[in-house]
């Protein structure tokens, strides 16, 4: 059900579905997801909030449950929970913190310039 709710968000909005079907966006999503995981590893006690493209990579990774768990154990030394039921204030505060950490770590904007979003998605670490 959680995966279905996320998938519905991705396909219902035509702008998002056209954007996410671009190969360059998919490649950037993979790179962004890897950077996001790096931040998770460095900041395990900070609630990080993904952008839409990073969340797509995360949901895709979770679909491969056994590989997801094994990868988490090997590289993060824990299983990272992905929750889509976080209160809006916590989500927004986490997004601001993630954006700040991302900017300091990677010297770049957290949201890609060509992204249809300027707000966080409804999930959090």
Walk me through the structure:
- This protein has 125 residues and is mainly α.
- The protein has one domain (2-106).
- It contains six helices and no strands.
- It has helices at residues 2-12, 14-20, 23-42, 52-62, 65-76, 88-106.
- Helix 3 crosses helix 4.
- The longest helix is centred in the first third of the chain and has 20 residues, at 23-42.
- This is 24092_t:CDS:1.
- InterPro entries: GRDP-like.
- It comes from Dentiscutata erythropus.
Keywords:
125 residues, mainly alpha, 64% helix, 0% strand, globular
SSE topology sketch:
Blueprint: H1 2-12, H2 14-20, H3 23-42, H4 52-62, H5 65-76, H6 88-106
Helix pairs in contact: 3-4
In short:
With 125 residues, the chain is mostly helical. It has helices spanning 2-12, 14-20, 23-42, 52-62, 65-76, 88-106.
Q: Mind describing the biggest β-sheet?
A: none
Number of helices: 6
Spatial gap, N to C terminus? 18 Å
Summed up, the domain count is 1
The overall strand count is: 0
Low-confidence stretches: none
Strand content: under 5%
Given the helix and strand composition, which structural class is it? mainly alpha
